[in-house]
Amino acid sequence: MSQVRVLAGTRKGAFILTSDGKRQSWDISGPHFGGWELYHLKGSPADPNRIYASQSSGWFGQIIQRSDDGGKTWHQPGTPPGEPTTTPEGMPKAESNKFVYDTSPETGKPLTTHQWYDGTPHPWEFKRVWHVEPSLDDPDAVYAGVEDAALFRSTDGGKNWHELAGLRGHGTGPAWQPGAGGMCLHTIIIDPSNPKRIVIAISAAGAFRTDDGGKTWKPINRGLRSLYIPNPTAEVGHCVHHVAMHGARPNVLFMQKHWDVMRSDDAGESWREVSGNLPTDFGFVIDVHAHEPETIFVVPIKSDSEHFPLDGQLRVFRSKSGGNEWEPMTKGLPQRDCYVNVLRDAMSVDTLDPCGVYFGTSGGQVYGSADGGASWTPIVRDLPAVVSVEAQALA
Amino acid sequence: MIRVVLPAHLRKLAHVDGEIKVEVAGPVTQRSVLDAVEALYPMLRGTMRDHTTQKRRAFVRFFACEQDLSHESPDAPLPDAVASGKEPFLVIGAIAGG
Question: A148: which of A27, A362, A394, B27 is 20 to 30 A away, CA to CA?
Fold first, then answer.
């Protein structure tokens, strides 16, 4: 019997929602790490019970947690409970929460500043991990996208982290500026047909791609047009909110930009707008159906200054044609007096048939659809504000 | 033995209840006490002091003997009552927000 596990990160802890393959009745566990912000949790495709979680607080900084039993128990990698905290030689064990920017000469151009909101130089300061992306085939390998924007990798299950400094050092880094939520690297997509190809996105620098496993990077923002920056078609500076890909067609990327829903058919070399008949093309989330690579989902938000649905109606819009033609999905969703937001990492799909679709809101609801978005049910209504949602289909 | 009181979130991370006790060889200072705490509980590294600069995190405060020691030099001697174990060294999460 198949099972589904949905990992919800919230402003005040993590929650794990589980159901059988029917996805009608759900068990809720949590809060895990109560009182801390859980920006993201994600399971390893190679070992679904291996889950990485980003735990942070304004007081005590960044912690990486790991579960090896599907979220029942957790530990900080390198310091499992019940084991000595020092090596036999008396040295402290590894520190899973240590993210230090690479300043080694090998990076060529160790950067010291990016741009602040007012355009003045600002030093790189590590704040938190926004997104964890486990390797597709190695449970011990995992990437972390952080604020201030950089990409880190661990190859020992989260014990030690090292920056892939070629991203910040490729040339445009000093021109990057933060978005309203901070200068965060929030999207990491690994190409299943070529793991050396990785697409990342930064708010508000844009999308970047490596084809050599992270050594070198290039901006992939041609075709983006952002009227809120001095040069609307600049190489970098675009506020990309999220990017999604279907594993069967890794060259096709879908993007929810600050404004505009975009599509690329050449792995980001060029983009075209596919907002079509959306009532507003501002938003944060975008995702692709697990079995239909041309079926995509967005949740339109009124505007950049009013982060809630139009007219108090929470609507998921689905396109079955890869964009341009969109239909509102409203069954089961509140259609009056609803003013929640849906943040960039708060939508996910499962791989069951029919495909399950899930999203979380700033009002603490996690909605699920067991029929590809046609109808929705609140799995849970009153969590803290939901920051991220990741679904796992389990055998 | 130096007595140290951690805030609830850090006690949970360190898997401890109540006060912790650490041995400090040499002068008893903020730095030597926190070094000892982090050696015993490596999972707390980076939570009280920045990993790189070793400066106190902005929303963490240090108190002892009814004094705010947050802005003292990390190498200044702590009060004798802390060094003797009569009084605890308090790590406090600053009150912020509404």
Answer: A362
ipTM of the complex: 0.90
CA distance A189 to A69: 25
Instruction: Specify the CATH architecture of the domain A51-346.
Output: 7 Propeller (2.130)
DSSP summary character for residue B49: B
The one-letter amino acid code at A24 reads Q
Q: Quick one: pLDDT band at residue A1, thresholds 50, 70, 90?
A: low
pLDDT digits (tens, 9 = 90+) for A227-250: 988 899 999 999 999 999 999 999
Residue appearing with tokens 């859980």: A38
DSSP per-residue codes, A258-298: SB-EEEESSTTSS-EE--TT-S--EEEEEEE-SS-TT-EEE
Contact A93 B42 (CB under 8 A): yes
CB contact under 8 A, B93 and A59: yes
- pLDDT value at residue A267: 98
Give me the residue from B13, B46, B59 closest to A98, CB to CB.
Answer: B46
Q: By C-alpha distance, which of B93, B88, B94, B92 is closest to B19?
A: B88
Q: Under DSSP, is residue A185 helix (H, G, I), strand (E, B) or coil?
A: strand
Per residue in B25-77, pLDDT (tens digit) is 999 999 999 999 988 888 898 999 988 788 999 999 999 999 999 999 999 99
Q: How far is CA A306 from CA A121, A310, A339, in A?
A: 29, 9, 9
In the block, tokens 């929460």 appear at A97
Chain B contacts of A96, Cβ < 8 Å? 43
How far is CA A57 from each of CA A36, A39, A42, A343, B58, rounded to the nearest angstrom?
6, 10, 19, 18, 12
User: Is B54 an interface residue toward A (CB < 8 Å)?
Assistant: no
As a whole number of angstroms, the distance between CA B69 and CA B63 comes to: 5
Distance between CA atoms of residues A144 and A297, nearest Å: 25
| Buried-state track B38-47, b at ≥16 Cβ within 10 A, e below 16 | bbbbbbbbbb
**Topology at the third CATH level for domain B2-93:** Ubiquitin-like (UB roll) (3.10.20)
Residue A81 in this model has a pLDDT that exceeds 50: no
Indicate if the alpha-carbon torsion angle A164, A165, A169, A174 is positive or negative.
positive
